[in-house]
Amino acid sequence: MSHFCRALVAVSSLAISGALVAISPASAASTVPATWKVVESQSMPGGEAFTSVTAVSSSSAWAFTSPNPLGARPTAWQLTGSSWTQKPFPGLPGETVVDAASTAANDVWVFTSTDRVLRWTGAKWVGVAKLSDQILGGVVINPSNVWVFASTLGTWHFNGARWQHFSSIALEGASALASNDIWAFDGTTVSNWNGRAWASTSLAKLLPRNSVVCYSQVTGIDAVSSTNVWVTATGGCEDFLGPFVLLHFNGGAWSRLAIDNSAGRANAVISDDHGGVWIPVGTGSPAVSTMLHYANGHLGSARLPYSPHVLRIADASVGHNTTTAFAVGSHMV
Questions:
Q1: Quick one: three-class SS letters along 111-126?
Q2: Torsion angle, CA of 262/39/123/148, rounded to 10 degrees?
Q3: Using CA atoms, how far apart are residues 245 and 9, in angstroms rounded to an integer?
Q4: For the chain, where are the alpha helices, taking DSSP H only?
Q5: What is the DSSP letter of 204?
Q6: How many CA atoms lie within 13 A of 142 on its CB side?
Q7: Which residues have a Cβ under 8 Å from the Cβ of 58 and sit 6 or more positions away?
């Protein structure tokens, strides 16, 4: 997304419009990727765009914009019922919301580029922590069980009262099934927390070989159950950011389900609640963004309300106990 925003700033004849798109629950079971629809669109100045979203249900979610150029502040938009409304948000100048998570309408967490952890209590945003490392992402089981992943100093855990630092393991993102069953990734490795320790498994053999201009890595994870874990990865080739790779764990072994040489880096992976997954992907140069759908052994592309050449999908989230999913991003107009 950042490359796209810089390009827009440089070309004054283009404008950016934030877009929130959602999939209706009735269509997700189809073997043919369903059509997504726009549920909210906002014209935004400069290179500002929606970059993070977290859904509680089909009628409760939060989306966040990240500013560009520097000096602007991120904004927050709340879905209540069927209406999206901008809400006061204590964003700092130039700050980016790098990740968002939620367990309930009154338990929404935000992790920022200025190393801050914020929580929405249902009435207001409160600061939970200011960590001494660059935050990459986080996962929330409940208000007393939060994990935060940082770039250099390792992993942090919050028990509701204090933070514990795990300096021996570095992680980028995670998906939690329970407090004693969390799946996380970093580089070409996937790790599982059993409530006492992290156990790591290398997936390097399932990824494309590295070269001078390509560097394979895992980019996302979605744990549906202990025998159904999805992982997205990329060959990491320069400019293009692909090829896209989809891996799966069946409880006994990891396997590679698909590789797409025309698709780039995945920005998220979420369950469609019918045995498949939605995967927003984007390439670097030329910039193309689309929504992949994997189900019943088939990887296809969903129909989107904008051309892939003007759309940038930054994040996606699915509500709890619902098939309604949301994706956020931007498009050129």
A1: EECCCEEEEECCCCEE
A2: 0
A3: 32
A4: 2-10
A5: G
A6: 7
A7: 25, 319, 322, 324
**Predicted confidence (pLDDT) per residue in 155-187, tens digit:** 999 999 999 988 888 899 999 999 999 999 999
What average pLDDT is seen over the chain?
Answer: 86
Q: Which amino acid is at 45?
A: P
What whole-number distance in Å separates Cα of residue 331 and Cα of residue 306?
8
Specify the pLDDT at position 22: 57
Q: Which residues contact 38 (CB under 8 A, 6 or more apart)?
A: 19, 20, 21, 305
Euclidean distance between CA atoms 243 and 263, whole angstroms: 6
Question: Phi, psi at residue 214, to the nearest 5°?
Answer: -130, 135
Higher-scoring residue by pLDDT: 234, 28:
234
- Structure confidence at residue 200 as a pLDDT band (50, 70, 90): very high
The secondary structure of 259-301 as a DSSP string is: EETT--EES--EE-SSS-EEEEEE-SSS--EEEEEEETTEEEE
